[in-house]
């Protein structure tokens, strides 16, 4: 059974509209989560806002958003003032424009969501929008209120559905030139390239989701299971990290690496 959608609305392209449902493509529900407890009583610890000067607890009705304009100087904004600058409609994904799929660098991608038709009658309209984007190599750009903020979103056709990516804001992405600008761009020596390509070929495998398993989570679950049974799991022995040696001759290091890979396979 498919997970419940967390958002329902409409996908709109000009005069073509169809009902859609959306669900996050990722989840952290399986992650081990901890609560902060009072060691003496075993009760949960509750957090609350306190006044930074008086130290007294602040009632929820007295909490207000503030924009810092100077040291200890703030402009206060009420919730209705913040809401007033958002989109009028929060339930329509109106595709405003299309761009080539490969023109948006991956660094702009934020969170992926599955977008699916929510009505058999509207499935044809959904399918034709999806298939037309696929055929032209384009992705759709729209704006939507999600997670209490207005966001630019990208609609990418994928199989039978559409992946809706929230995109990062312009001030969140740093220019790569600031970091890569001084890196040398000369061509690598052909012999070295050939050896590195050999190493890459030796280590190439089909993608498997197990490659991104979380071993720390597995060990935490073992510790929790042991504590439930009243056992204490022995601490993991500390292993000193091996320090890499200074590479003097890259060609020698590459040849030794390839020889090592061959021994592992045999």
TrEMBL record:
This is Non-homologous end joining protein Ku. Residues 226-236 have a biased composition (Basic residues). Residues 225-246 are annotated as: Disordered. Keywords: DNA damage, DNA recombination, DNA repair, DNA-binding, Signal. Homodimer. Interacts with LigD. With LigD forms a non-homologous end joining (NHEJ) DNA repair enzyme, which repairs dsDNA breaks with reduced fidelity. Binds linear dsDNA with 5'- and 3'- overhangs but not closed circular dsDNA nor ssDNA. Recruits and stimulates the ligase activity of LigD. SMART domains: Ku78. NCBIfam families: Ku_bact. It comes from Phyllobacterium ifriqiyense. Residues 55-184 form the Ku domain. It comes from the Bacteria. The gene is ku. Pfam families: Ku. Coiled coil: none annotated.
